Every structure is written in structure tokens, then in C-alpha cells.
Request: fold
Amino acid sequence: MSNKASWPSWTEFRQNSILILGFGLGSGMIKKAPGTWGTLLGWLLFIPLLVYAPILAWLVFGLGLIAGSWICGRAAEIVGVHDHGGIVWDEFVGIWLVLLLLPDQAWLWWLLAFGLFRVFDIIKPWPIGWLDRRVSGGFGIMVDDVVAAMMAIASIWLIFLMVN
Reply:
């Protein structure tokens, strides 16, 4: 990489489709809190798809999940850093999973999905942190976010059951 801290330059980013996807369509290029920016963009792009074309949303999620290990792994190889902070495709897939499995598609649940997913992804309670430290490659980059998503989903459903 030509630039300090192994961040791709904007030229390198624009010229490489793997970096475009891996760095969340550019959201991961924001050096301050790239995971939050990646989650936010994934959230903003996915909600309309989920509301107006739910079957397509499931397809996009499935393809994103299947391709995610490869995208994240290749992006990490290109920048030369495993689980580089700017690689946020895993945040895209994680927030998509949470949004798909909400008890209701409404603003309250969407906001809670965003907040709880970020909390679990940042704090990394067991087993998220354990997986993050021990599983390598593109799968390792993806798996902790998928587990963070599952923990956010479980928390949301617990809240839903408690208030209903």
C-alpha cells in the first residue's frame, strides 16, 4: 500500500472492486469509527430493500454472506492487514441479518437494531471476542459480526417479548 497505516489511497480504492465492496462502498474509508459508518450505510441501503422487496433482501443477504468471507479475505490481503478497521463488508452483512429478523419492520426496531448491533460489535462479549481473536482469514473477519448480529437479534426479541 502506498499510504500510511495501510489505508488504501482513494485512487487504489476506486480502481479495485474488492476494495470498493470490502470497504463498504467507501464508508470504511472514513478513518474515525469506520465500523459505525459501515453499519450506518448498510442499514440505510437495506431498509428500503427490506420494506419494498423482502425476498430480494433475503437474496442480497444470502449472497453477501456467502461472498463475504472471500471479499473480506481478499480486501485484507490487498491492504496487508487482517481484519483492517476499514473493511466493513462484515458490518453490512451483520446489520442486514439483524434487520431481516426483527419482530416488526418499524423505526423503533430499526434504531434498536443499529444500536444493539454496534454495542455487541464494539464490546465483543464472549464468544464474539474469542472468535475475533482465534479465527483467521475472511471467515474470521465475518464470523464475529454474524455472532454479534445473533446476539443483537436475541436481545431485541427478548425486549419484544417483555413488552408484549
The radius of gyration is 15 Å. The mean pLDDT is 95. Helices lie at 10-14, 17-22, 34-52, 54-79, 89-100, 107-123, 128-134, 137-163. Residues 22 and 123 are 22 Å apart (CA to CA).
